[in-house]
Each structure stands twice: as structure tokens, then as C-alpha cells.
Amino acid sequence: MEYVILAVVIAVIAVGAVAGLVVTGRRRKELPPKPAEPATLAPPTPREPQVGDEAAPPREAPVQTVEEVQLPVAAPEIEAPEPTAGRLVRLRSRLSRSQNALGKGLLTLLSRDRLDEDTWEEIEETLLTADIGVAPTQELVDRLRTRVKVLGTRTPAELRTLLAEELVALIGTEADRSLHTAKHEDGRPAVVLVVGVNGVGKTTTSGKLGRVLVADGRKVVLGAADTFRAAAADQLQTWGERVGARTVRGPEGGDPASVAFDAVKEGIAEGADTVLIDTAGRLHTKTGLMDELGKVKRVVEKHGPVDEVLLVLDATTGQNGLVQARVFAEVVDITGIVLTKLDGTAKGGIVVQVQRELGVPVKLIGLGEGADDLAPFEPAAFVDALIGD
């Protein structure tokens, strides 16, 4: 019996020993292998500063002088306007589209086999419809009658030459159509005033005229004396920046005469060749505004005489444009006419009539909306486009 109890005890002890070995082995397998060398820990990621954190000690930033600081330069690209020489010839197609009806209509009537009184009346009506005016029309018809009788034969080429010669003579070739924009001998710049009523494209014409002057090699200063419309001053400044011309402007609603005076003063200081002053659009029915235009001219003349006073007229307004011209001529001495929108009307005869009314020549004509669509007026080139091929 004692042997049996001893055997049981030994068996229990043996089973416990085996179980302990198994558990120990399992635990050893679950433990990770011991690293050969301790791992290097990465520095902690800096967190965003929070409210209540202590400020870090100030760091000294490098100090730059005014000369060392690089400022962004955003100068506008300077454009090179088209040369004015031959510009009217280049724009001939725009002129002929609207004016061709007049020239071709006259040639058709003159080419009839029999030029009776009814035909001559039709010729007169055609000329009057084109706004040439009563007196110039009668002069032209009388000369055409005489020359056709003397000519005898009337081939198309002969008629075209005859009509061209008479139209050029009617427009006139003796007048001085040059722009007086050269610097004076004493170094004072030439001064050009641009005047006209609202709606004729006066500020746009002033900007285009600035391009004409730059294309002719002039150094130009622009004066934005239309202080009643901030948009007009902005527009003129944009035109100037495109060709590198400086614009002098004043506060909105300021004194136009003061701006004009400052523009000439600036032109003298900069050694400019020409100062171009864009005045406000004056309604010819407003006596006070017209008086103000006279004041602008008088104030500018404190620097010296005004070289050009250019009246801008809309060619499409016809007789109303002539009324405007007469009133402006009473206030300031007009030296030349700028006819705009001549490509949009068949009334090219206004060139003749406005010259007769004012006794001053048409010096520039506008033939489109492009930047270089303002051209010096050349009678022969104008008539050539008028008649066509």
C-alpha cells in the first residue's frame, strides 16, 4: 500500500514538472528578440504653438537698406505707333467703303450719253446729299459743265481725272495742314488744345493724337483737363502709358485751367516737344462752360502762345456739327479740324463745308476704332478713295 501511494506522488510531481517546462517554453517563444543595439529615437515633431505657451526668444532678422530692397517693377509695355506718313493711303479701304457711293454716283451720271438739265440736277442733288454745301456744290457743277463741253469726248478715264481734279480744287491744296507741334527755339514745348462737345470721341482722339505725335518723334506730355469725368482722365492716362507719354491730371471736379497750366509747366520741366491738353466736352448751349474754355486758353497762354486749337467734330452729325463749329470759333481761335467717324458716313462733303464755314483746314480724320486709325488729311488721297478705281 505504501508503494502505491509513493508511485502516485512521483507521477504527480513528474506531470507538474513537464507542464512547467511547456509553459516556460511558450513564454520564451512569445518574447521578442532582444535588439543587438539600442535604437536611436527620432526627435519629436514640433507642435503648433498654443495659447498660453511662452514666447520663444526673439531672433534677429537681417536688415536691408532702401537701396538693397528689390521692388517689383510693373512698367507697361511701350508700343510703337505706326508712322503717320502714308497712313491715309493704308486706311483707304475704310474710307472708300462709306464714301465710294458719292464718287461712283457722280461718275455714273457724268458718263451718260446725254447730259441734259435733269442729269445736272441729279448731280447737284448727289453733292448736296453728301453735305458739300450749296455754294460749293454750285461752284463744282458750273466747273464740271464747262470742262465737259471743252473735253468733248468723255471716256471713263478722262471723266475720272476731270472729277478728281475738280474735287481736289474744291477741297483746297493751299491751306497749311501740318500740325505745329515742334519745340520752340527757346526750349518751350508746343501747346495743343483739343476741344469739342460731348460724344464726338474727343478724349479718344486726344489719345490717338498723342500716338501720332510720338510716331512723328515728339516727346509728349498729356494734360487731362477734363476734370468733370474721372473716366476721361483714366482713359487719357492709359493712352499715354501705352506710348510712354506722361499724363498730368488733377482731382475730380478740380479747376481745368489749373490742370492745363500744370501740364504745360511739367512739359517745360521735362523738356517735352509737345503738350497735348484734352479739355472737357463743352455743350455749345452752355454759355458758362464755353466761358470756362476761354479761361483755360488764357491761363495756358501765361506760359506762351497756344500753337494749335483742334476742334473735334463727328462727321456723322452733318449740319449740327457746323453749328458747334461756329460757336467754338467764337470762343477760341480754331486752327484746325479733326473729323472723326468719317468711315461711318457717306457725307464726306462735310470736309468741304466745314472748311468754308470756319476758314480753317481739316488736319486729321478718324477712320475707325483702332489705335492708329487717326490719319493726317491729304486731299488727293481722300479724293482718290472717294472716286475709287
UniProtKB/TrEMBL annotation:
| Reaction it catalyzes | GTP + H2O = GDP + phosphate + H(+)
Kindly report the protein's main subcellular placement as a broad class.
membrane
Q: Which molecular-function annotations from GO does this UniProt entry contain?
A: GTP binding; GTPase activity; signal recognition particle binding
**Top-level EC class, please?**
hydrolase
The record's section on SUPFAM superfamilies has: Domain of the SRP/SRP receptor G-proteins, P-loop containing nucleoside triphosphate hydrolases
Q: What does UniProt give as GO cellular component?
A: cytoplasm; plasma membrane
> What is the recorded name of this protein?
Signal recognition particle receptor FtsY
Q: Which organism is it from?
A: Streptomyces tateyamensis
